Amino acid sequence: MIATKRFNFGTPELLFTLSVAVLLIVVVFPMLLIFFNAFWVDGHFNVTDVLRVLQRQETYQALGNSLVLSGGVTVTGTLVGTLFAWLVTRTDLPFKKTMKLLFLVPFMLPAFIGALAWKMLLSPRAGYINRFFMDYLGFDSPIFNIYSYAGIILVETMYLFPFVFIQVSGALERMDPTLEESARISGADLFTITRKITIPLVMPSILSGALLIMLYSMAHFGTVAVLGIETGIYNIPTLIYEKIHQSAGSFDSIRTATVLATVLVITAAAILWLQNRILSKGRYQIIAGKSFRPSELKLRGLRIPILIFCLAYIALTIVLPTVTIFMVGGLKTYGLPFALENMTWANYSHILFEWDLTRDSIWNSISLGLASALVTMFAGVIISYVIVKMKVRGKGLLEFLGMLPFSVPGSVIALGVILAWSGKFGVSLYNTVWIILIAYIARYMAFSLKANSAALEQVHDSLVEAARASGATMAQALRDVVIPLVRPGMVAAFFLIFLPALRELTVSVLLYGPTTRTIGVAIYTLNEDGETVYSAALAGIALIIIVTGEVLIKRLVTGKNAA
Amino acid sequence: MAYIELKQVTKLFGAVRAVDRLDLDIAQGECVAMLGPSGCGKTTTLRMVAGFEDLDDGAIRVGERIISSKRDNFYLPPEHRNFGMVFQAFAVWPHLSVYENVAFPLRIRKLPKEEIAARTEEALKHTNLWKAAGDSPDDLSGGGKQRVALARALAIRPDVMLLDEPLSSLDPHFREEMRFEIKDLQRRFGFSILYVTHDQSEAMALSDRILVMRSGVVQQVGTPLEVYGEPANRFVFEFIGLSCFLDADLTPTGMRINGVDAAWPAGIAPAPELLAAGRACLAARPSEIDFVGEGGLRGIVSRKAYLGETVDYRVMVGDAEIRVQKGRRVPGPGIGEAVGLAFPRPHWYPTA
């Protein structure tokens, strides 16, 4: 032990300092700038001014909208997610395994692309479904206006309900079936059991999934931006965007943005804290070893109708929007009917091979995704190593700093990065890809830390000690023992970052410059500029890239597990 | 008349006959243990009685009432069978207090408030849980949780109690204590018990009769004494208690085991049909093999170990090792000594 200490003299401290420095620069400094800008006016601390900003109509309306929208999405998403989770785990619904996979598909699809599709289908004047009802079925007015609170809530629900679905179906699958059987033998029918035993026992999972939906919806930019701005529905992230972009950096709009960001951070932190509490304290020990299959509710006559309902849900929420995107992407002009003579491949080849804006965006997203995934993966390994394995004082601080971005919504990170890197402190990265890269690193660091510390915790200290006892130096032990063992964690971290980065919108939309659009930004801005057809075509390409990536990775990961 | 009757009860899992034409009668107030290795179909049988599994053939009757019948495709749902059941993994509800757990079946039955209170209290007192009534079951030990499960099953005053390995999740010393408690409760309330276990001593201690199962087929039903003393076949013999088996060639005058001959002493020869086959398996409990100075099956003591009350010998007969156990007070041979083995209570089974 003494020898070990002498050899490592200075090394842990060096790594620790380095890690703290990285996190300080990338995460803490921008965050502090936000609070500083929000609360520091004319050289002193000022809360009344913050309150004044909050009392402005547009501010409190955005806050209220965020609350209404995320609250609504949380309620509907939780209901939908719990219902489907219960159906695939506790009933004799046909093709349950396939249905379970299908219900997870919305997770792969970016919500803002879905919003785009629904806009094409249900916008009051031009939406294809609305027009069909008005032109052919004699309706006087559109059947549904997607530019509304209900519209936004519905679209977000479609893409966010898997948070609850995953948590609840997992809990129901792991739950000891005799907990329900003992209620049955006690005289309770299946309905009573569901109400009094099953639902209460998985309530912590339901709540934790619900809070994840709320957290995500609160910080979500895309859907509200696509569907809300038309009718003036802003939430916090879209108002921050509005302030930063439209007002060209005036002091007052930056302050408003920082105040909004502060509210968002506090809310997000509160939600995460609550979720942590529910998970650590409220989760029951309901898992047991030996078990039979849980009794399934026989749906009997309802079996086929419910299957049709589920399939219709999937057709409506996954297939219809996806098909719409590809069809509109192939139209000669937006608004033409879907007839063969109106279709063309030209849009796709144009955005892929001719148009710099879209070609650049694909290239930007891929290179940004790769770069941020690589940097974050390696930084994550080092920082997790310090957190998990090294005995240095203050590593709790490191852990806190690393996980901080987890509770920081993307628009807040982007805002902080703007404040830090647009020249005020000697470095101006504004309008370059570097500023987006820094923001991505800050945003995804927590993912990498999670994956890497989980992997490192599996590597018992005695493995390194055995290597040292066999004559390896610390560096050799790391290279030959630790790194090979944590490689799966690193690979996982890489893809956990690369895939979301590919479709990222919330952060990059605040940071992009003329030549640094990402795929998400390009789709969004093309849509804003009325280039609906090109926007849809690019969205189609993005969907292909994303789904291919997801499938390849699933293959890779399961293939590895099998070996 | 038998209170519970299982007739030709059969369960298929795919092509596997998990339970094959099982017949069993249980009298009122009787305790029957189903004993067998894991996967023998005992738990499946219990679950069919409880109503969690449908039958692929046969019927189950309780009192005057058919509760499961393949022919009529009728299955009374578990919640209407009015049985008490205790599961291996306790299955007490962590979101309810001990009291609420026990009161649950009474509340479901919508009994009057005073009766719920009285019966819950009674059940809790009989299981020594009255003091813990307000606690969360998660604060109790395994034994405590299993008491809650027992109290919950008792509260409805069932005529039939189904116990699915109720003791195997408990620490060994709790196990014996709980055994007595279950037996006491049965004496007091007079319910019938169908008890599933893979632990033979548990089955022996608790039950009036034991049903031994293997691969879905009943091997023997009898009192503990019968099953131990007169095992119906080699499997039962081996599953219950210590055993040793020797394949023997038979002649009218004696047997040959591993090239060693022994003449028949009076009374131990197998039944004539086995004798006629010329080959059979001799089964004996190690404690029921005697050392004799002359005659018997000759062998040499190869090992000797003191196990406290008993002494464990290994005797080589040819190249077969035979286990013999004797009380420590009985003077026995030393290692290397030539001895004769006598089998005063031999069992003969056809060779495997």
Can you characterise this structure?
The complex is a heterodimer of chains A (about 575) and B (about 350). Chain A is an all-alpha fold and about 575 residues long. Chain A has 25 helices and two strands. Chain A has a two-stranded antiparallel ribbon with strand order 1-2. In chain A, a hairpin with a 2-residue loop joins strand 1 (about 40) and strand 2 (about 45). The model of chain B has no long low-confidence stretch (mean pLDDT about 90). In chain B, a hairpin with a 2-residue loop joins strand 12 and strand 13 (about 255). In chain B, the strands form four sheets. In chain B, strands 7-8-9-3-10-11 form a six-stranded mixed sheet, sandwiched between helices. In chain B, strands 2-1-4-5-6 form a five-stranded antiparallel sheet, with helices on one face. In chain B, strands 14-13-12-15-21 form a five-stranded antiparallel sheet. The chains are: A mainly alpha (about 575), B alpha+beta (about 350). The interface of A and B includes residues 185, 201, 286 and 290 of A.
Which CATH-level-2 architecture of the largest domain in chain B?
3-Layer(aba) Sandwich
Give the total of domains of chain B.
2
CATH class call of the largest domain in chain A: Mainly Alpha
Total domain units of chain A: 2
What share of residues of chain B is helical?
25-40%
State the strand order across the main sheet of chain B. Answer: 7-8-9-3-10-11
Gyration radius of chain B, rounded: 25 Å
> Biggest sheet of chain B, in brief?
6 strands, mixed
| Helix percent band of chain A | over 70%
How far is the first residue's CA from the last residue's CA of chain B?
38 Å
What structural category characterises the helix and strand content of chain B?
A: alpha+beta
